[in-house]
Write a structure and sequence with these properties.
There is one protein chain. By secondary structure, the chain is an alpha+beta fold. It has a single domain, classed as Avidin-like (Lipocalin). It is 16% helix and 51% strand. The protein contains 1 helix and 8 strands. Strands 1-2-3-4-5-6-7-8 form an 8-stranded antiparallel barrel. The termini are far apart. Bound molecules: biotin (BTN). Biotin binds next to β6 and β7.
């Protein structure tokens, strides 16, 4: 019985370690537009919280931190940011490969009139901390 519990403990430990290695808590990621994703805390389940600062030319809501929430399973990642004052919502989804995260993304912009606009782009994040 003790051996089974020990084996289970080791397995759970490795599982948690896998998450923390792919996307560590307190890590900082910068994309090709100069925007940053700071990951505050990654839970053992893979869900994480952080903040995103947009510095991309041609976009609004620049230089202000917005909450980011996401989930990671092995190397597969998805996270979202609601840019409330700018009436837009972005979701990134992709794969982590060491210090590089290539994430296609969707931005949904809700204009004062008419239906929401959907834009598809891609960001590439590099881990800087
Ligand atoms: C807006 O103007 O709609 C609000 C800011 C959106 C910034 C987008 S989110 C995806 C893309 N990657 C960035 O780093 N910034 C833009």
């Amino acid at each position: 019985m003790k051996r089974i519990l020990l084996a289970l403990g080791i397995l759970i430990g490795f599982h948690s370690l896998a998450f923390s290695q792919a996307l560590p808590s307190s890590s900082l990621w910068k994309n090709q537009r100069g925007s940053t994703l700071e990951v505050f805390f990654v839970e053992p389940s893979g869900s994480f919280q952080g903040q995103f600062i947009n510095r991309a030319a041609g976009f609004t809501c620049q230089g202000t931190p917005f909450p980011a929430v996401g989930t990671i399973k092995n190397t597969s990642i998805a996270f979202s940011v609601s840019f409330v004052p700018c009436a837009s919502y972005a979701t990134w989804y992709g794969l982590l490969n060491g210090n590089i995260m290539k994430t296609p993304l969707i931005i949904l912009f809700v204009p004062p009139k008419g239906p929401p606009l959907k834009v598809h782009e891609t960001d590439v994040f590099t881990r800087v901390r």
